[in-house]
Amino acid sequence: MLRSGPAVLIAVAALASALAPVSAAAQEGPARPTIRDLGRAPGILSPGPLNAITDVAGVRVGQVTLRSGDSVRTGVTVVVPHGGDLFRDKVPAGLSVANGFGKLAGATQIREMGEIETPIVLTNTLSVARGIDGVLDWTLKQPGHEDVRSVNAVVGETNDGGLNDIRARVVTAADVVRAIETATSGPVAQGAVGAGTGTIAFGFKGGIGTSSRKLPYSLGGFTVGVLVQSNYGGVLSIDGAPVGVRLGRYYLREEVENERADGSIMIVVATDAPLSDRNLERLANRAFAGLARTGAAFSNGSGDYAIAFSTAEGVRRTAERRAGQASVADWPNDRMSPLFVAVAEATEEAIFNSLLKAQTTTSVIDGKTVTVEALDIEAVKAVLGEGR
């Protein structure tokens, strides 16, 4: 599975001597805006206080960013559904695949059983096995798991080989464990961090993005949070504005025959609504409405995945409920539509944030210096202002 590469700026250069490891803070530079900082609020629903997946109570996010030398630009991002024993108190979950050119460990068991029993790990394509190892190491060492002999590790990926020496496989199981153990429920770092450190979207620097929506109490009062790892292509549209066209970077430009939209996106959706695995799959399906609004091409070479889970106590697959017949809460079909709107809006905004918060990144791949520019904020402002 290939990353998006329409406007990657490549210049041949002699392979530079190895650089010392660089901290994430040193790479981030001046703070970059979110879409709301630019005065745009996609959709009609309001976000939660953090405008992040962690607005769903109990959800935590951990990230390990790996930047070193002239070619390591990768990392790990994990979403932990709740703070209890995930293996014993599983969460119902649904999976949707728009295009399946990807590697998502644990997918078949999610579809068969409708539940998740581990943190959800995002990393690069060739590190999925390391992600599984990390989840296994962490799960098996938890107190009370001495008798566990089977674990369904959920690990997704996108290919960051355009900016990262992906064949070096620098991500370790220890990095995954560290991301899980340092996960927090507060603000989520966005842009070129964690599993988004080396990703590319629409020919610009992509990354990790997040957003949330809070339904009014008349519609249930539930929260929907989304986290994305953006690494795909198409014709970028931001809140309806034709940014990709105006900036001259988009798929199928007439003057450039080899423009590509291949790549991938991982979308993780959390909610506190008491949903069955069937309705969580329906919720995951609607995340792709938000993806489509950004101008995604859903190309042949893309891997487009959405995983949705519920943290509601009333639907958790606890040991007691799994031991026999049990009654669980079930939000009705006829009241799902507001949640569908919420997930589409949050997905769209999370993707915008993944691009806007990302920093220009340079690497040396196969002896060539590669620079992927971040979105030009002033140019984006100008395009957004055209319709006003």
Q: What is the secondary structure topology, with strand pairs?
A:
Elements: E1 9-12, H1 24-28, E2 60-68, E3 72-80, E4 91-100, H2 107-113, E5 115-116, E6 120-124, H3 128-140, E7 154-158, H4 173-181, E8 200-201, E9 204-205, E10 208-214, E11 223-231, H5 243-247, E12 263-271, H6 277-293, E13 302-310, H7 319-322, H8 337-356, E14 361-365, E15 368-372, H9 377-386
Helix pairs in contact: 3-4, 6-8
Keywords: Signal
GO molecular function, one term: aminopeptidase activity
Signal peptide: 1-26
The CATH topology is L-amino peptidase D-ALA esterase/amidase
Strand tally is 15
Domain tally: 1
Please identify which CATH superfamily we are dealing with. L-amino peptidase D-ALA esterase/amidase
Name the helicity range: 10-25%
Overall CATH architecture: 4-Layer Sandwich
SSE pattern: EHEEEHEEHEHEEEEHEHEHHEEH
Radius of gyration: 20 Å
* End-to-end Cα distance: 39 Å
CATH level-1 class: Alpha Beta
Number of helices: 9
List low-confidence stretches.
1-28
Q: Compute the average pLDDT.
A: 92
Strand fraction band? Answer: 15-25%
How does the major sheet shape up? 6 strands, mixed
Q: How is the largest sheet built, in terms of strand order?
A: 5-4-13-12-11-10
Shape: globular
How does the helix and strand content classify structurally? alpha+beta
